[in-house]
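pasting for the record
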Amino acid sequence: MKAANAERKAAQEGAEAEAACDAAIDAMTGTDKELAEGFHQLVKENTSLAAKTWYGMPAYADADGKVVVAFKPALKFKTRYATLEFQHAAQLDDGSLWPVGFALTALGSAEKKRIAEILKAAVGR
């Protein structure tokens, strides 16, 4: 909650928001950092989402400032894997049931391809 309050107070925009996202990734270690850096690059290559932080985690927002996806590091939540969490602004609707969270333990070529497809769908491309 402290991170969320700081984000609201700062009213992050543009370069400041991206710098905060970069700092959040830089503060990570090990596999979390490696995965977050790779995911950050995939978002940049496949969407026009803006980098920012959300509850202190790297996140990516649409033109309205709504978070579409966030990277949740494993270490922060003491879990065995990081997750990619899509929010309500993501356009992933598929019938009455669709996934909005994905566990991530490695980022090989197959995972990069699948994530790129999901990102494109989330932003309506």
